């Protein structure tokens, strides 16, 4: 579902209002960016910043899988401490993820920055492939376009 496709006459301000309503009712929204020739798909939350939490990012996953992953972790983050960079977390029914601090949120989370300004913090949910390899390991199988990692392991941007 694409808001812009469903609302061809809608403006950017209309879209931001729609996001604000979603954030008020749900706690956050998920912004997806489609894959293009050079870059894999990616998605991120918008709205956790308003609750004093970092936004969450997933790269290299189709929108439905990225949304499910982000929604699952966002629900946890609202009720507990945000996972620290470097933490590895086995997800029930999902992959093992490692938390990586996003070095430059303003380069990737355009809509979150538009709503909340330059103070947005973000962490990436980096996932291991089906053989337990990470994107930084030789032999990682990350699908078409791979899984770009937007920061350094263990934090420190």
UniProtKB/TrEMBL annotation:
Region (Disordered) residue spans: 138-157
Pfam families: DUF4262
Biased composition (Gly residues): 142-157
Protein name per its UniProtKB record: DUF4262 domain-containing protein
Native organism taxonomy: Bacteria, Bacillati, Actinomycetota, Actinomycetes, Pseudonocardiales
């Amino acid at each position: 579902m694409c808001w812009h496709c469903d609302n061809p006459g809608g403006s950017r301000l209309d879209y931001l209002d729609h996001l604000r309503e979603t954030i008020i009712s749900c706690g956050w929204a998920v912004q997806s960016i489609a894959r293009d020739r050079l870059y894999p798909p990616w998605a991120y939350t918008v709205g956790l910043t308003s609750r004093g939490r970092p936004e969450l990012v997933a790269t290299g996953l189709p929108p439905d899988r990225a949304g499910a992953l982000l929604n699952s972790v966002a629900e946890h983050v609202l009720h507990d401490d945000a996972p620290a960079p470097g933490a590895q977390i086995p997800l029930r029914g999902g992959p093992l993820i490692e938390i990586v601090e996003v070095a430059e949120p303003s380069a990737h989370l355009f809509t979150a920055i538009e709503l909340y300004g330059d103070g947005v913090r973000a962490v990436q949910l980096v996932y291991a492939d089906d053989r337990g390899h990470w994107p930084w390991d030789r032999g990682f199988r990350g699908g078409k376009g791979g899984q770009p990692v937007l920061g350094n392991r263990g934090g420190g941007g």
